[in-house]
User: What shape does this take?
Amino acid sequence: MVTMKQIAERTGVSVSTVSLVMNHRDEGRVKPAIAAHVRAVADELGYRVNPMASSLRTNRTHILGFISEEVATTPYAGGMILGAQSAASQYGYMLITVSTDGGMDEDEEIEALQRYGADGFLYAKMSNRVTEVPRRLNDCPLVLVDATDPDGLVPSVEPDEYRIAYDATRRLLDAGCGRIAYVGCSEGGMIAQQGRLAGYRAAIEDAGRKFNERLVVNVLNNGPALEAVSDLFDWERPDGFFCFNDARAWYVYECAARRGLTVGRDLSVVGVDNHRVFAETLSPQLTTVELPHFEMGYWAAAKLISLIEDRSLDESEWPSTTAPMPPLDAGIPAKIHCRLIEKESVVR
Amino acid sequence: MVTMKQIAERTGVSVSTVSLVMNHRDEGRVKPAIAAHVRAVADELGYRVNPMASSLRTNRTHILGFISEEVATTPYAGGMILGAQSAASQYGYMLITVSTDGGMDEDEEIEALQRYGADGFLYAKMSNRVTEVPRRLNDCPLVLVDATDPDGLVPSVEPDEYRIAYDATRRLLDAGCGRIAYVGCSEGGMIAQQGRLAGYRAAIEDAGRKFNERLVVNVLNNGPALEAVSDLFDWERPDGFFCFNDARAWYVYECAARRGLTVGRDLSVVGVDNHRVFAETLSPQLTTVELPHFEMGYWAAAKLISLIEDRSLDESEWPSTTAPMPPLDAGIPAKIHCRLIEKESVVR
DNA sequence: CTGAAAGCGCTAACAT
DNA sequence: ATGTTAGCGCTTTCAG
Assistant: This one.
C-alpha cells in the first residue's frame, strides 16, 4: 500500500502538501508545478487514499448502508442494489448491503453498520408499503426506496404506480383489446394497488369507454385467486389483462392454457414483473412491465449522498419516464415511470 | 461515540489496560478486579470498538467481501448472502456485498473493497461453473461459492449434484413412477449436469431398472426445448420427471397442461428451483429441490474466516445432508446435500 | 505557498 | 500488573 508519506518523500514536499493536492484543495494554496508533480508521482505509484485512515479524522467513511429485508427473496432487489451501487461509486462512495431476514437481527446489523461509520442509509422494500423506520436510523441521513413512512417525514423514491397502470392499460387499448380486465391485489397496505386501479380506470375512461367494475378482480396470491380469475374468464370473457404482478399473471396464463387459448394471440396480457417469473419463463408469451428498480436505487443513493454532503441535487434531470414501453407481446421488459417523492428530510 | 479514553478516565486506569480488557487479552496481565470494573463501565457507557481505528494498527478490518455478478438476476443469491452474513456476524465480521453486473466494473469494485481493507473474499456464482478468478484476488484469502476454478487451487463450497439427483430420482421411484425422465441441461460448462445425470442414472439402476437413454433430453432454455419436451411426452409417455431447473420444469408443466394432465396426479415432477419460479408460483403443484444456498454461504464464510485467522475449522460438523426431502408434491422446498470441496488453499 | 505539529481511536512494544 | 510511548495514514490548524 502506497501512502502519502511515500509520495512526500519522492517529491520532496511535506505530507500536508500531498494531502492538499490529493483532496483537490490545492487551488491557490500549492504552486501548480508542485501540485502537478505530486499528482504525477501519485499516479505513477498508484496511490489510493486509505478511507479508514481519513475517516478517523473526518468522521466520514464514504460508506452507505443499504438495508433490506427482502433481498433474500426477491430477485429484483438486485436491480436496486446495482443502481444504488452505481450512484455510490460514481460519487466515490461504497455501498454496504445488509439483508435482514425479518426483524430480530435488523437492529444488530444496523448497529454494526453504524460502528463501521456509515455516513447514511438506504432503507428498501420490494413493494411499496407503509413502513415503520427502525428507531436506530432516526438521526441519520436516510432515504427510503420503494417504501413510505407512516408520518411522511422521510424522503423516498417510489414508482409512479398510476402512470405505470395508465400506460399498461393504454398499451392494451392500443393493441385493440375490447374488454380489458384488471387483476389487482387485495392485500392490505399495498400502496401500489390504489394507484394502479386509478391508472387503469383513467386509461379506460380517457379512451371513451365505460369503466366496468366486473372486469376488476382483486385477489391474494393463493388458491381462491385462481378461481376468481377463472370466473372472470368465463363470465366476462376479457381479451386483455393488466395484472398487478407476475403471480397474478400466472393465473391468467393457466386459465388460458386450460381453455386452449394462447396468450399473445387470443388474448393480451400486460403485468408487472415482481419476481422474474416473466423474465425467466414466460417472457416469450407475455408483455411485462418491469419496475425501474435500478433507477430507484440509483436516485435514492444520489439523493442520500446529497443529503450527507449537504449539496442540492438537480432533480430536474430525474427520469419521470425512463423508457417507452415496447410493442405488445414483444417480451422485452419495459422500464417506466420512476417518481421521486420528496419529503421534509431529517438531516444528519 | 464512547472511546477507550473515556473508559480509562472513568475507571482511573490507562487506555492500554482498557484495550487489553476489551480484547480479552487480560488473562494474567490485568488484575481481575480491575478488569471487571473496566468491563462494567464499558457496558454501562455502551462502549463499542471503533473498527476503523483498530484496523489502522492491526491491518484487520473484520470485513469480508462477497462478490457475485448474479445477485442482480437470481433470487437465491439472497440465501447465500444471508448465510454468509450469518456466519460473518457470528464470528464478529461484517459482510460487504458487491454485485458486479458483468465484467468491466468488477475489477474496480474489488479494488474498492481492498481499499476498504477487506480481510478476505467470497466469490460466488449462482450455478456451478468453471470460473476464472479475477487476478486481483490472487493473493487474498479466498473461497468460491457454487463455483470451481480451472486449476483446482481455490477452496470452494459446492452442492453435491450427484446426491441431489440421486435423491430426487429416488423420490420419484418411491412415489411409484414407472417411467422417469430426466430433463437436463445442454449448456456448456455447467458442472451440475454431469453429476445430476450420473445421480439420476444410478438411482434408476440401483432400483433394478434399466437406464433408458430415450428418457433423457438435454436442452437449452429456449424455444426448441419446449418441442423436445413435447416429443418426449408423446413418444415416451413418462409419468415422472426430474428437471434440471425450474425453467425446464416449466416446459413439462406446459406440456401437461396442453394435454389436460395434472401434475401431482397424472404425473410427478421434481425439479431444482433456481429462479424461485417454483416457490413463487408453481409450488402447490410441484415438488421442488431447493439448493442449500444459505448453507453454502454460511460455510463458505466460516471457511474464509478460518483461513484469515489461520485457525482450523471443524469440518466434520458440516452438513452433508441438511434435511430430508419432503413427501412428493407437498410443495415444500427441500434443502439437500451441500458438500465441501476442499482445495489447496492460497493463503493470505 | 509550504511545513511542522497535533491528534482521530486504537494497539503493541517497552518500561516500570 | 499497569502505564508510557510511539505510531498506523490521514487531515487540519497554525506558523513561517
